[in-house]
Write a structure and sequence with these properties.
By secondary structure, the protein is of the alpha/beta class. Helices cover 45% and strands 9% of the residues. It has a 4-stranded parallel β-sheet, sandwiched between helices.
Length: 143
């Protein structure tokens, strides 16, 4: 599982999380933790939950509660976003990636590491052309 998570984080421009089980939860929270702590190359990668039929309402509620208790470094929205369907999630991620690339192009290279954009700490490695989707559905992976 550790290798799979690292592949997701290393090879994708974004993380899109579909409803799933504990493996998906683990991948999601490790991605969020990496983004929050500026680790694992996650600082500039959009993360989006696909909250179909309120599947992730509990996660969203817990993050709001954690933020209200002052236990987060940044507003919860800086760690991940949620959409109600896969198409909207992909569209949001594409827009975030384009925005980050545009911002990266407008900053002189010697200032890049000193800038922060919308909760992203640094801009790195934004030229991969893949999107990784994390899903708890093992049936689709086997067929």
């Amino acid at each position: 599982l550790t290798e799979r998570k690292q592949l997701l984080m290393d090879n994708g421009d974004c993380i899109i999380v579909l409803p799933g089980g504990v493996g998906t939860f683990d991948e999601f929270w490790e991605s969020v933790s990496g983004k929050c702590l500026g680790m694992k190359g996650m600082t500039d990668k959009p993360i989006c939950l696909v909250n179909v039929d309120g599947f992730y309402d509990g996660f969203l509620l817990q993050m709001r509660r954690t933020e209200e208790a002052g236990m987060l470094y940044d507003p919860s929205e800086s760690y991940f976003h949620s959409e109600k369907d896969p198409e909207s999630a992909l569209k949001w991620c594409i827009n975030q990636i384009k925005s980050l690339k545009e911002q990266k192009q407008t900053i002189p290279s010697n200032e890049t590491n000193n800038q922060a954009f919308n909760g992203y700490n640094t801009l790195k490695n934004n030229d991969k052309n893949t999107s990784m989707i994390s899903s708890g559905s093992r049936k689709s992976e086997r067929s």
